[in-house]
Design goal:
Blueprint (H helix, E strand, L loop, with lengths): L6 E6 L4 H5 L2 H11 L3 E6 L14 E3 L7 H4 L2 E4 L12 H10 L14 H13 L6 E5 L12 H14 L4 E4 L13 E3 L5 H9 L3 E4 L3 H7 L4 E6 L4 H4 L2 E2 L2 E2 L3 E5 L33 H9 L3
Parallel strand pairs: 1-2, 1-4, 2-3, 5-6, 5-8, 6-7, 8-9, 9-12
Antiparallel strand pairs: 10-11
Length: 297
């Protein structure tokens, strides 16, 4: 069917990077359903994940959205979709709110440009990363439950290098995230979402907590070693190849309160730790993490 005046659709998710990446499947499905009969705009304060997305027309900051009543026939607001219903998968919450259907393709996607690919390819060659490497996100930001301690990370790296040293470790994330200054480490902090996705496509594995880089890896082909604290795996592992958690290994904190996000006050704005000190981030089996990585090398 072809209509004379395309339907204008607005999809909104204010933030953050990982949450916005998780909306990309919604936009893909909308474009699949309506094709040229729809113009899809995005309202978000984190526009970067939608850069180069072929399914959309415009991106607006949330506080600069054109009048919905005058401009859009369909308005899908994904804010607080999972924050008010945390016992279901984050992306599934999005799909149910948008379509009332959770049987659709819930995978995420990112679209590197030729410049993104050229930058990563050049770095891989210049730093001798063309063979084996893993991508690691050592998060260091607010929400302490997501900040795995450097003691854990260094113990993991020590166990890895005891077994073999024929690979390198690429650190991604933002400027505040951690990095190890060592010849076997490469600093890719500051890479955009599309570049991280492309970097992960050729990595032996991604290792990290649920986060923006985690969702970049979810859009890639790489194996994911998911280090989880407050989230149950069924809430956050990516859908890939039609399967939840496809090509993933889960390593959960050893704390008995793992997955506490399910019992947080709704809507969830921040984590309240029942033990006060967020011990989950400092209680991982470093041997299990190292073994999960070594299986991919």
């Amino acid at each position: 069917m072809r209509i004379e005046n395309p339907i204008n659709i607005l999809v909104q998710r204010r933030a953050a990077i990982g949450d916005v990446i998780m909306t990309t499947g919604i936009v893909r499905e909308l474009k699949h359903r309506y094709g040229h009969n729809a113009n899809i705009d995005i309202a978000t304060d984190v526009a970067e994940p939608y850069r180069n997305n072929p399914h959309i027309r415009n991106i607006f900051p949330v506080d600069q959205i054109p009048s919905v009543n005058n401009r859009y026939e369909i308005y899908i607001n994904l804010d607080d979709a999972y924050e008010t219903n945390p016992t279901e998968h984050y992306v599934t919450n999005y799909f149910y709110r948008a379509f009332g259907d959770i049987t659709l393709d819930q995978s995420v996607e990112l679209f590197p440009t030729n410049n993104d690919r050229a930058l990563v390819d050049t770095k891989l060659l210049l730093t001798d990363l063309s063979d084996k490497y893993i991508v690691v996100h050592m998060r260091n930001w607010h929400w302490p439950a997501k900040n795995i301690s450097m003691d854990i990370w260094l113990d993991v790296f020590g166990k890895l290098f005891e077994e073999r040293a024929d690979f390198k470790i690429v650190c991604v994330g933002g400027a505040s995230d951690n990095f190890v200054d060592h010849p076997l480490f490469f600093d890719a902090r500051g890479y955009n979402s599309q570049q991280v996705k492309y970097l992960c496509d050729y990595a032996n594995a991604f290792v990290g907590i649920d986060s923006g880089p985690f969702q970049c890896a979810a859009a890639s082909k790489t194996h994911i070693v998911a280090l989880l604290t407050h989230l149950h795996p069924d809430r956050i592992l990516p859908f890939r190849n039609g399967e939840l958690g496809y090509n993933c290994t889960v390593i959960r904190t050893l704390e008995d309160c793992a997955g506490c996000n399910d019992i947080q006050q709704r809507p969830i704005r921040q984590l309240v730790c029942g033990k006060k000190t967020f011990p989950c981030a400092n209680n991982f089996d470093s041997t299990a993490i190292a073994q999960a990585i070594l299986k991919q090398l």
